[in-house]
Design a protein that fits this description.
Length: 287
């Protein structure tokens, strides 16, 4: 029966997490438009919007903090479409604020979603990928996965962890024909990356000693947001599709222009040069 299903479902299938908005929703539409079967998952399927009406798209519940929903979404997706070719760990959010003002619960939640959630989805799909000796795991990181951003130390820490996990895991899985890849978007304003900086957020206490610094960084991020890549979402989802289909062993894809200078400095220059650049960006008060 399984073989018969496999034969009649020759289309590629992608499972995406976090498709209620942002990159996830746009990517689900893009893959569907290009003929893929799409398993569009999210915590609350009432937020699916027009995804339900698109051909080739199946909307289902997956909360990365709930192992049962992960297992069910994968099993039901395989039953429906015969196989899964690509899993995109897109679900995530940014916890912003001064570290000292963040509760331990806020810290735990940031890692539960951005790190442990991606790990749990990955673990759950691997038996299927191993059996097929094929598959691609695409983890949505950030420029903050290579660069530590002030007032985003938790977000950066979670994405640094996702990067290290992906880079180490790729060698294990390559031996079985399975690819692991990372997408590193910049600070796209459409994703709300900058919107919560300095704002009210659950589990964040305001410590007055930091207020001058917070104001300083808020101004810097305002300028960065204004200068960010206006086509960021389109570029990121195109990079997601490219990484899923190009057949390359390339690990990292950094598609937006706004983060390129910092990534270049981080990875291609000396530590003093990088420190000087980030000092000018985050510390210097000169115009």
């Amino acid at each position: 029966m399984h073989q018969h299903k496999h034969k009649i479902n020759m289309k590629n299938t992608v499972l995406l997490t976090g498709t209620s908005s942002g990159f996830g929703a746009t990517a689900a539409r893009l893959f569907a438009e290009r003929g893929w079967h799409v398993i569009a998952t999210m915590r609350d399927t009432s937020k699916a919007g027009d995804l339900r009406s698109l051909p080739n798209v199946w909307v289902t519940t997956l909360d990365v903090q709930d192992l049962t929903t992960i297992d069910d979404a994968i099993a039901d997706g395989i039953e429906r479409f015969g196989h899964i070719d690509v899993v995109i760990n897109n679900a995530g959010y940014g916890q912003f604020g001064i570290f000292e003002g963040l509760s331990r619960e806020a810290i735990q939640a940031q890692f539960d979603v951005n790190v442990f959630g991606a790990m749990d989805v990955t673990r759950a799909i691997l038996p299927h990928f191993r059996a097929r000796r094929a598959g691609t795991i695409l983890n949505i990181s950030s420029g903050a996965g290579a660069i530590g951003f002030p007032m985003a130390s938790l977000y950066s820490a979670s994405k640094f962890a996702l990067e290290g996990f992906s880079e180490g895991l790729r060698y294990e899985l390559a031996s079985l024909g399975i690819r692991v890849k990372l997408i590193e978007p910049g600070g796209a304003p459409q994703t709300g990356f900058m919107a919560r900086v300095g704002g009210e957020s659950a589990g964040v206490a305001v410590i007055e000693d930091y207020l001058p610094f917070m104001q300083h960084i808020g101004q810097i991020y305002g300028g960065m947001s204004a200068a960010s890549d206006p086509d960021a979402v389109e570029k990121v989802v195109e990079a997601m599709y490219e990484a899923a289909t190009d057949g390359k062993d390339q690990l990292r894809y950094a598609p937006t222009d706004d983060i390129q200078p910092l990534l270049q400095a981080r990875r291609s220059t000396s530590e003093p040069t990088y420190q000087s650049l980030t000092h000018q960006l985050f510390v210097s008060t000169e115009a």
